[in-house]
Amino acid sequence: MWYVVGLVAVSVAVLALGVWFVRREIRDEVSPAPLLWAGYAVVAAFVVFGVLRTSWVVLS
Amino acid sequence: MRTRADLLGWIGLAGRVYLGFVFLAAGLAKLPEPAMTEQAVRGYQLLPWQLAPAYAIAMPIAEVVLGALLILGLFTRTAAVATALGLCSFIVGITAAWARGLNIECGCFGGGGGASADPTYLADTLRDLGWLAIAVYLILVRRTKLALDDLLFRRGTPPEADYSESSKKTELGSST
């Protein structure tokens, strides 16, 4: 149980850091905003799927 | 002249090449023996049973490609993001096995994983966290030295900066 709580907490922190990172890149005009947000969406989907799958396996 | 950006770039080069060779070695060790890799993947009891064969083939190929991209410095930041995600998934796999009390070997560099009387979960996790730190550094640093990115996608210098005094003179001279 505590493993899942920790995993979710770390994942939420990683996703929040990802938002900060994407906004910094957009502010500095490193890449186009739609491209960066699309990349972020792919990464976030991977993270969310990984967390859900791992949580389900650990708790079952 | 040495600047802070130069120093960060050289550190980035060292990290890039090191992490690239780690991934290349891990991928090449697993690539010739997909059955052993599949056995190692199944040992974690994390992925659906039907996905293990495809994952056992795709993962070493991805590791080889990412390793090569990092060593060459091609699409460095994208490769670093993919590498970081891969390392996060490895860390989650190892720690989830640890949390469930499984006794398995990592199988990270081939060998098929399998049962182990003395699993090294803490050492494996710390090692992967160190590699993850390098990948995150490569994402944040933006530019590293001796990268193909610099050769193929030169950025940062607007065209005006390349407009030298001599070319101005030539243009003015031709117009008068």
Describe this structure in words.
The complex is a heterodimer of chains A (60) and B (176). Chain A is 88% helix and 0% strand. By secondary structure, chain A is an all-alpha fold. Chain A starts with a helix and ends with a helix. Helix content of chain B is 68%, strand content 0%. Chain B is built from seven helices and no strands. In chain B, helix 1 (4-30) crosses helix 5 and helix 3 crosses helix 4 (76-99). The interface between A and B is medium-sized, with 14 and 15 residues.
Structural descriptors:
heterodimer, A: 60 residues, mainly alpha, 2 helices, B: 176 residues, 7 helices, 68% helix, 0% strand, disordered C terminus
Q: What is the alpha-carbon Rg of chain A in Å?
A: 14 Å
Shape of chain B: elongated
Largest sheet of chain B: none
Overall geometry of chain A comes to elongated
Query: How many angstroms separate the termini of chain A?
Result: 10 Å
Termini separation of chain B comes to 40 Å
Beta fraction of chain A = under 5%
The total beta strand count of chain B reads 0
Helix count of chain A?
2
Quaternary structure of the protein: heterodimer
Q: Which structural class do the helices and strands of chain A define?
A: mainly alpha
Number of domains of chain B: 1
Q: Largest sheet of chain A, described in full?
A: none
Class by helix and strand content of chain B?
mainly alpha
Helical fraction of chain B:
55-70%
Chains forming the largest contact = A-B, 14 and 15 residues
Radius of gyration over C-alpha positions of chain B, nearest whole angstrom? 22 Å
Q: How do the helices and strands follow one another from N- to C-terminus of chain B?
A: HHHHHHH
Organism (chain B): Nocardioides turkmenicus
Protein name (chain B): DoxX family protein
GO biological process, one term (chain B): methylamine metabolic process
Domain Methylamine utilisation protein MauE (chain B): 10-140
